[in-house]
Amino acid sequence: MKKDFAILIFFAVIGLIVYAFSFYIPKEVHEFASRLNQTSPEGIIGLSDKRKNLLLEFDDFFLNHDLPRVRDQYLTFEFPYLYQYKLLNIKLDKILEEISSVSIKDKQLKLWYVYNMGVVVKSKDKTLCFDLSAVVPNKKMSEIAQHCDLLFISHEDGDHYSNPVIKSALNAGRTVIVGKDEIGYLEQKTRQLSKKGQVVSVAHKQSMDISGIRVKAFATTHRGSRGKANFWFLVEAEGRKILHTGDGLIDDKNTEVGKVDVVLMNEYLPLEYFYWLPVDTIIPLHLHEMAHSKSFYLQANYGEYLKKYEEHTKKVPDAGKMKHILLFWGESLDI
Ligand SMILES: [Zn+2]
Question: What is the pTM of this model?
Answer without folding.
Answer: 0.92
